Amino acid sequence: MVSVRDAAGIRPAPDLETARRTAGEVADPEVPVLTIADLGILRDVAVDGDAVTVTLTPTYSGCPAVDAIRDDVVLALTRAGFARVDVRLTLAPAWTTDWMSEDGKAKLRAYGIAPPTGRAAVRGPIPVTLGVACPRCGTLRTREVSRFGSTACKALYECQECGEPFDHFKVH
Amino acid sequence: MVEHELAAELLGDDAAPASRDVAEYALWLGDDALILSQQLMQWVARAPELEEDVALANIALDQLGHARSLLRYAGTADGRSEDDLAFWRDDLQFRAAWLFCLPNGDFAHTIVRQLVAASFQFALYSALQSSADATLAAIAAKAVKEVEYHRDHAVQWTLRLAGGTDESRRRMLVALRDTWPYVDELFRDEPVIDRLEGIAVRPSALRAEVDRVLDAVFTEAELDRPEVAPSSGGGRRGIPFPALGAILAEMQVLARAHPGVTW
């Protein structure tokens, strides 16, 4: 472990594991049940003494939550004792919902959002939609109301069994 | 607390600056996306149904994201920020192809413009993913997944309007005829492309792929490709579409009235 000597004596600098855990626990402001680790947008955490560099990747190119997430990461790591926090954004490799954790998908379902189904794949010009299970009653008898929802990452669905509208986190 | 520059947001600070030619090419694509985004935003609260307000705003947001990445990269060539390029250039300095500057028209016109724009951008970004320029390749790999979704949206509406009522089909035919003159310009090569071998995607090389997709959609929708003469175009050479000045006036007025303002 690296130690930092200052006027007050010797105190241990926060370690990599603390940095990873702290950064990973930051919540997505638009889907607050998910942490950025669940979402798969936390790409790297590197510690050098009392400085930490966090690399994030945006979900969608225009995602406005990136600003808030970046500020939250800086705040959380500063509170954890890091003197310098650098947040970098990288576009490559491009984020995919395949990186969402199974734990994250379960949290989404419990929150009332249908998690992404299957794996991201390039499709043909005439779209084919896969069945999406209702997060409340589990039926596959659901209908897409709109391919676009309240945020870039979601589509709007309606359950034809229980009649509830719900968000579907799109496969991306 | 570390101060973060908005301009430094989307790419690592260690990305190599663009050369003048690469910057020119990034402006082509960035200006297409920026103008399309600005135009689509005008549908918010005016679309035929609430879901379409949301859909078109989502598409506009993706396009704005692409524009920001591309303009930021273009600006590294001469020290300008994405905001400098978006708000402090006049129409003669923009490089958007005319198709992206076409007015929204009725919903059918917007859908046809979307069909062509998204099919073009999907083919373009698919190919640009293997650019020798790492920054362009990264932006393209991100954008391609998003514009594929935009293409799906436009295809679904094209099928629905063409196969809907007599009125929706009539409007679709008018929109196709009005939009088609602006398709050719997208595939015209300019001299700068010859200097960007392996970095830029040659526009003419995309034609066959885009035609294949559009033909498949037209067959499904029982539409014919209009036979109309192409427009002169010239957006890539700084000959602006006549309406571009008015689009920019609205987009830039706040930034110019209050220089340096942030929001």
Automatic annotation (TrEMBL), chain A:
All residue ranges annotated as the PaaD zinc beta ribbon domain in the record: 130-170
Pfam families cross-referenced by the UniProt entry: FeS_assembly_P (PF01883), Zn_ribbon_PaaD (PF23451)
Membrane-spanning intervals of the chain: none
All copies of domain MIP18 family-like, residue ranges: 25-78
Protein name: 1,2-phenylacetyl-CoA epoxidase subunit PaaD
Origin species: Microbacterium invictum
Gene symbol of the encoding locus: paaD
Automatic annotation (TrEMBL), chain B:
Stored InterPro entries: Aromatic_CoA_ox/epox (IPR052703), Ferritin-like (IPR012347), Ferritin-like_SF (IPR009078), PaaA_PaaC (IPR007814), PaaC (IPR011882)
Gene: paaC
Keywords: Oxidoreductase
Iron as UniProt keyword: no
EC number per UniProt: 1.14.13.149
NCBIfam families to which the protein is assigned, alphabetical: PA_CoA_Oxy3
Record Pfam families: PaaA_PaaC (PF05138)
UniProt-listed Gene3D superfamilies: 1.20.1260.10
Presence of keyword Translocase: no
Molecular function, one GO term: phenylacetyl-CoA 1,2-epoxidase activity
Name of the top EC class for this enzyme: oxidoreductase
Protein name: 1,2-phenylacetyl-CoA epoxidase subunit PaaC
